[in-house]
Each structure stands twice: as C-alpha cells, then as structure tokens.
C-alpha cells in the first residue's frame, strides 16, 4: 500500500528539471522586472534632467531678453530725444512757429490732447487683476471626489 | 553536483558573504564618521548656488511718456586667473580697446594671482561699443554658446570675461538734470528724484538658492522691478525753458539762471531748471561743474533775498484785512523812517500821491513799508507764514531749503528787530527759494488757496498706475483778495507797458530787483538779483512762470533783464500748451 502510494505521488510529482526551470524563470522574470524598472527610472530621470536643464536655459534666456528689452527701450529713447528730434526737424526744413503764425480753429466737442501718460492700467480700474485659476487646476483627486459626492447628494 | 565539491561552494559563498559584510560594515562606518558630516556639508554646499537677483531700476518718464531715465547694457570685464596665458597681452588689449590703464590691469592680475583668486574684476561699466572692439579680436573658430561671456576667443585673451548688466542711462543727457539727479555706480540715487525716490526706484533685491542639479530645478521667483515714475515735467517745455535761459545767460552775462513753469491749478511742475546743468551720463563731471557751496537744484535748494517780488505778499495781507484797497492813496515823500532806519525808493525819489496799484506798478519801497506799518508785525508775519515762507513747500525733490525768516519774539543767531518789519515788506532781510515764491502766488490764482507743488505725477508698480492727485497747503487769503491782487498785477503790467507782456494774452506778474547782501553785512552796491513771477491767461490761468537771473551784467533792473525772459518763455509756452489768444478763446467760449 505504502509502495503504491509512493508510486502514485511520484507519478504526479513534477520532474526536478521542471522545478529548476520554474525557479530560473522566477529569478529571470524578477531580473527582467528590475531591469524594466531601472530602464524606466533612467529614462524618466534623464528626461527630467534634460527638461530641468532646458528650464535653466530658458530662465537665463529670459533674463537676457529682459535686459535686452530694457537696453533697446533706452536706445530708442536716445534716438527720439528732444535734441535728436529738433535736429531732424531742422534738417527737414522745419522751424519753430510763433504765436502770431498760428490759426486756431474751434472744433466742437474736441477735448484737446489727453493729459498725462497712461503706462499701465490705473489702480482700481479692474484691469490687470489676475483671474483665479479654474478649480480643475488646483483641486486634488480627493477634493474632486468630495465635490462630486456633494453634488450627487444635492440631487 | 558531486558531494565532494560542496565544501568548495560553501567556502566561496562564505568568502563573498564576508566580503559583502565587510563592504557594508565599511560603508556604515564611513557613513557615521566625522568626515562624512563634512562631505555631506560640502555636497550640500556645491548642490546649489546663492544668487542675488537685482531688479532693474524703475524708469522715469515725462508727463507724455517720453523716457527721461532708463537702463542700458554695460559690461563688467573680469579675468579667469587659471586661463591667463599672457597678462601683458590682456593689459595691452584693455588699455587700447577699453581705455583701462595698462599698469593697473597688470597689477590687478598679479594681485589676484597672489591671493589665489579664481576670478577678479578688471573694469566695469564698460560701454558695448568698446566691448565690440575687444570682440574684433575673435579668431575664426566656432564659438560655443556657453562661451558667449568670453570677450574673445583669441587664445591670449581667452581668460577675459565680459559679463553684461544694466546701468542707469539718461537719453536726454542734461535735460532736466537738476530735477532728475543721477545714479552712481553703487546704485544709489544722488539729488533730485533719483535720491528722493531711491527706495521706490531701486526695488528690493532678492537672494535665492539655485540648485545645480537639473532634477531639482525650480521656478525663479519673479522679483518685481523697481517702480517707474511718471513726472509732471513736459520735456518739450523743459527743453524750451532751458534754451531760453541759456540764451538769457549768454545775453545778460548773469552768473546763474533759474526757471520754473508750473500748472497753478494742480501744482504740477511742467519745467524746472537752474544752471549749471550736468550731462547725467557723465555724472563724474559733477565735482568739476558744481561749486561745493552751491546747491544742485537752485530752484528748490538756493535761498535768496527776493526783493520787490515779495511786495505782493505784503499787499495781499493788507487788502485781505481791509486796510487798503487798490484805490487807496498814499503820499510818497521818498523816505520813511521805521525801527531806526530810513527806507528809500529804488531811485531815491519821492513819487507823490500813488494808489496801491501805483505802489506795486512803480515798486515803491516807501509805500510798502508804510503798508507794513499799518499791518503791524503780528499780522504781517502771520500772512508771511500763511503763504508758506520759512517752511519747505513739500515739493517731492531731495534737499529742499526752508528759507530764512526772523520772527518777533523768536530767539536766533540774529534776533528780529523793528527795522526787519520795514525791510521785509519789500523783500529785504528775509530769504526764500524760487519754489516758495511760485507756491505763494498760486493762492492768487486758486481763489486764495495755495497748492503744494509736486514733480511726480504717477507711479507704475506691479503693472498698475497710481496717479497722484493735487494737494492744497492752506488758504492764506480770501478769494476776493486773490482776484483783486491779480487785477492789480495785470493792470500794473499793462500800464507800465512792461517788457513781460505778450501780445494777445493778459498776464499778471511782478518784477523783483533785489540787492545782494555781502558777508560784511552791507549790500553789494553794484550787483542785483533780478527775478520775475507771472501767470496767465488772467481769466483762466494755465501757467505760472518764475525767472531768476543772478547778478546780470547788462542791467541791474529786473524789468529790463528778467521780464523779457519771462515774455520769451510765455510766447513759446502758449504754443506748446495750445493756448489760443484771449480774444479767440472768448469767442470760442461764447459760441
């Protein structure tokens, strides 16, 4: 009976080479999984480092551009300075007008030249205020779920 | 696997295990060692850089948005010591192209090397044109973008670094220089608006740690630029006033000229200048141009005895109290004794019977001293102070003077005496600034209310513009007195056919010829201060103009020196301000 039962077990027992193959398979799949994770990690890290480097470059470019804008504004002001404009007017044959040579015309409803430079929206005018970001950009998943259930509960 | 080989495998495994354990133990030991803390600190130190972000200095514009003070790119020239191959070549190139002293460059390189420095600054605030000359030394080799800070890729100059940064620049050069002031290389404003609004213009520098690891890169904070200022100055009017005063200075041989143009309704200063002026892009000339004792802006910083121009204050007080009217007659005998001194007229003669209008028209000291006696010291000094004399006007410019005013009962270096009342009534024995004089006459224009002068019209900060409303400094006289005095001053100009008149426009104003006190205490017998303050058009005043010529040589009389300069300015001012002649305005108003 005992002998027969051993034979029965042996008949259904996996072959040793199959168990070895299984073990190798588990280890190999673990190694492959690790390699995959490592590859993904390296890929993401490399891409984020490249992106970070690009951000640094853009920050430097932005600083350069802002500096250049300041410089160009000032250079333009040099070209349009009173001294330069008067010289250009003289070169073009213009001369200062005397009050006696001026004819004033009455233009109904003309308010005259606007007084004062407007270089930015006036404080309190409502312009220039930053619009709040939509909730979709600021809510967490949890916030969204809470809001969703609250809405559903409302119905 | 044969059993006899098992021990070998076990031995190998034990050796590897031991080696692994040793490595772990060693790693653990290093991790906890004293050096580890230092290494960690160093790695932390090198993982980020401390960067100071300096916001660009705020700009300054005139009232129409023309840039008066901006920022332009200049270069710092430095040297990377470990790349230096030929110090003489660097010194030669810099002395020839940039103008830096050859020996100073060599000395700096040697000093930096001795100190073991990595980088040192050889020159700064170098203009781009000079950097272009250095760049011309480039040899035809491909340049990496990262190398763009190198001044040149010539091997002998490869150690030179040209780092751009912003510096203050003034496109209009010396225009409105007395108002603007200037910024020195230490980024500090000096004089004028630049110093008064230093904190606002400069902004707040911010220090941040920038990670060197690109994985840890973070957004740089948006450091707001310094606030920009919009001035009340109109650059066209400013340029015109400077031109007229420069011509007057040459024509009259005066020592200095000062001019102010103000909108009397709002207190906005449209133009303000005094001589000398300075090319603000070359502010180092300041020490050569300016006398140590002379203020940078005489319109607000220089006090002087105003002379007859001050008579309007005396007359205003007397009319306001009802002591006199324009028709009140005064018999001028040519001499008036008060407080132990004798007061005489400007020509030493008796003018006989004169109305108050005649007293102002002929600028009679004797008459005004008599009016002062009627007022009494208490009333007179009440009005003088109510008109703001003895106090700064509050104009938003750096270093405004208060003037000199001795008061009864107030102890001082030189105490007040009775004779002061008599002399003060016609502008002697007290000192005022041109700005105070202009501020005082705004009371005659604004129904008795004085406006506080200001130079900043608006501030632009964080993308918003804040405009500054007019402010008033009190009401020294009634509206009726103001109108009466304006009529007197307009009539007196017309009756005397003053050289201050401009055809087509009714103007009011007063000359001031003032003797100049000398250190001895006596008055200079040969030289005077000549000034004129006037406004117009009388029915709808749009401007107040003040002119002061110091010690003119062609004539000592303000009516001959300052009045024509006032007329010159007004003649051009009405064109620039689009003010039609009175008749045309009245016709247009009736339509």
Textual characterization of the structure:
The complex is a heterodimer of chains A (155) and B (591). With 155 residues, chain A is mainly alpha-helical. Chain A has a domain at 1-67. Helix content of chain A is 66%, strand content 0%. The longest helix of chain A is centred in the N-terminal third of the chain and has 64 residues, at 16-79. Chain A is elongated, with a radius of gyration of 40 Å. The two termini of chain A are 73 Å apart. The model of chain A has no long low-confidence stretch (mean pLDDT 85). Chain B is elongated and about 145 Å long. Chain B has a domain at 235-590: DD-peptidase/beta-lactamase superfamily (Beta-lactamase), CATH 3.40.710.10. The N and C termini of chain B lie far apart (123 Å). In chain B, strands 2, 3, 4, 5, 9, 17 and 18 form a seven-stranded mixed sheet that branches. Chain B has a five-stranded antiparallel sheet with strand order 11-10-22-21-20, with helices on both faces. A two-stranded antiparallel ribbon of chain B has the order 1-8. Chain B has 19 helices and 22 strands. With 591 residues, chain B is an alpha+beta fold. The model of chain B has no long low-confidence stretch (mean pLDDT 92). The chains are: A mainly alpha (155), B alpha+beta (591). At the A-B interface, α2 and α3 of A face β3, β5, α9, β17 and β18 of B.
In short:
The complex is a heterodimer of chains A (155) and B (591). Chain A contains five helices and no strands.
Quick tags:
heterodimer, A: 155 residues, mainly alpha, B: 591 residues, alpha+beta, Beta-lactamase, five-stranded antiparallel β-sheet, 22% strand, elongated
Q: Secondary-structure element order of chain A, as H and E? A: HHHHH
Approximate shape of chain A = elongated
Proportion of β residues of chain A?
A: under 5%
Helix content of chain A: 55-70%
Percent of residues of chain B in helical segments?
A: 25-40%
Determine Rg of chain A (CA atoms, Å): 40 Å
Q: Greatest contact pair?
A: A-B, 47 and 55 residues
């Amino acid at each position: 009976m005992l002998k027969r039962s051993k034979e029965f077990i042996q008949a259904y027992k996996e072959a040793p080479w199959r168990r070895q193959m299984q073990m190798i398979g588990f280890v190999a799949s673990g190694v492959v999984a690790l390699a995959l994770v490592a590859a993904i990690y390296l890929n993401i890290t490399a891409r984020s480092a490249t992106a970070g480097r690009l951000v640094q470059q853009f920050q430097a470019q932005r600083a350069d551009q802002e500096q250049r804008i300041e410089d160009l504004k000032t250079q333009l002001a040099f070209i349009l300075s009173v001294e330069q404009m008067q010289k250009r007017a003289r070169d073009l044959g213009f001369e200062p007008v005397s009050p006696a040579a001026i004819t004033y015309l009455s233009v109904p409803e003309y308010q005259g030249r606007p007084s004062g430079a407007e270089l930015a929206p006036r404080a309190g005018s409502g312009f220039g205020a930053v619009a709040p970001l939509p909730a979709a950009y600021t809510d967490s998943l949890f916030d969204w779920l809470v809001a969703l259930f609250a809405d559903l509960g409302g119905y | 696997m044969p059993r006899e080989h098992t021990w070998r495998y076990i031995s190998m495994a034990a050796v590897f295990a031991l080696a692994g354990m040793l490595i772990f133990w060693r790693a653990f030991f290093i991790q906890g060692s004293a050096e580890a803390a230092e290494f960690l600190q160093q790695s932390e130190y090198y993982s980020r850089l401390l960067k100071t972000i300096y916001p660009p200095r705020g700009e300054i514009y005139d009232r129409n948005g023309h840039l008066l003070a901006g920022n332009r790119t200049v270069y710092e020239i430095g040297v990377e010591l470990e790349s230096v191959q030929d110090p003489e070549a660097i010194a030669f190139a810099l002395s020839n192209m940039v103008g830096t002293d050859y020996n100073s460059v060599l000395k700096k390189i040697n000093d930096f090397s001795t100190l073991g420095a990595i980088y040192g600054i050889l020159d700064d605030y170098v203009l781009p044109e000079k950097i272009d000359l250095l760049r011309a030394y480039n040899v035809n080799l491909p340049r990496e973008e990262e190398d763009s800070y190198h001044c040149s890729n010539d091997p002998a100059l490869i150690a030179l670094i040209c780092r751009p940064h912003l510096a203050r620049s003034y496109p209009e050069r010396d225009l409105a220089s007395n108002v603007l002031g200037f910024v020195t290389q230490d980024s500090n404003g000096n004089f004028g608006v630049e110093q008064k609004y230093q904190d606002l213009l400069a902004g707040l520098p911010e220090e941040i740690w920038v990670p060197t690891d690109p994985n840890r890169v973070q957004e740089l904070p948006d450091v707001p630029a310094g606030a920009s200022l919009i001035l009340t100055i109109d650059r066209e009017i400013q340029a015109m006033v400077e031109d007229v005063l420069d011509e007057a200075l040459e024509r009259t041989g005066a020592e200095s000229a000062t001019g102010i143009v103000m909108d009397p309704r709002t207190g906005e200063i449209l133009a303000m200048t005094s001589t000398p002026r300075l090319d603000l892009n070359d502010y180092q000339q300041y020490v050569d141009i300016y006398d140590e004792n002379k203020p940078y802006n005489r319109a607000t910083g220089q006090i002087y005895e105003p002379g007859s121009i001050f008579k309007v204050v005396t007359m205003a007080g007397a009319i306001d109290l009802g002591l006199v009217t324009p028709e009140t007659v005064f018999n001028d005998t040519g001499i008036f004794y008060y407080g132990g001194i004798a007061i005489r007229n400007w020509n030493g003669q008796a003018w006989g019977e004169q109305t108050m209008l005649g007293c102002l028209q002929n600028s009679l000291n004797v008459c005004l001293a008599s009016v002062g006696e009627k007022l009494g010291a208490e009333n007179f000094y009440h009005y003088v102070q109510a008109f703001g004399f003895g106090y700064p006007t509050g104009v938003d410019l750096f270093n405004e003077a208060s003037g000199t005013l001795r008061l009864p009962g107030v102890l001082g270096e030189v105490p007040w005496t009775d004779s002061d009342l008599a002399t003060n009534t016609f502008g002697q024995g007290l000192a005022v600034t041109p700005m105070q004089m202009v501020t005082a006459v705004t009371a005659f224009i604004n129904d008795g209310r004085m406006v506080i002068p200001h130079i900043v019209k608006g501030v632009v900060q964080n993308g918003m513009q804040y405009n500054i409303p007019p402010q008033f400094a009190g009401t020294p006289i009634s509206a009726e007195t103001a109108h009466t005095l304006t009529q007197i001053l307009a009539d007196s100009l017309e009756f005397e056919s003053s050289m201050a008149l401009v055809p087509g426009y009714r103007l009011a104003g007063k000359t001031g010829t003032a003797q100049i006190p000398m250190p001895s205490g006596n008055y200079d017998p040969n030289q005077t201060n000549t000034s004129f303050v006037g406004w117009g058009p009388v029915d709808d005043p749009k401007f107040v103009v003040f002119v002061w010529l110091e010690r003119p040589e062609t004539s000592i009389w303000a009516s001959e020196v300052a009045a024509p300069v006032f007329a010159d300015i007004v003649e051009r001012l009405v064109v620039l301000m689009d003010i039609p002649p009175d008749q045309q305005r009245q016709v247009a108003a009736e339509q």
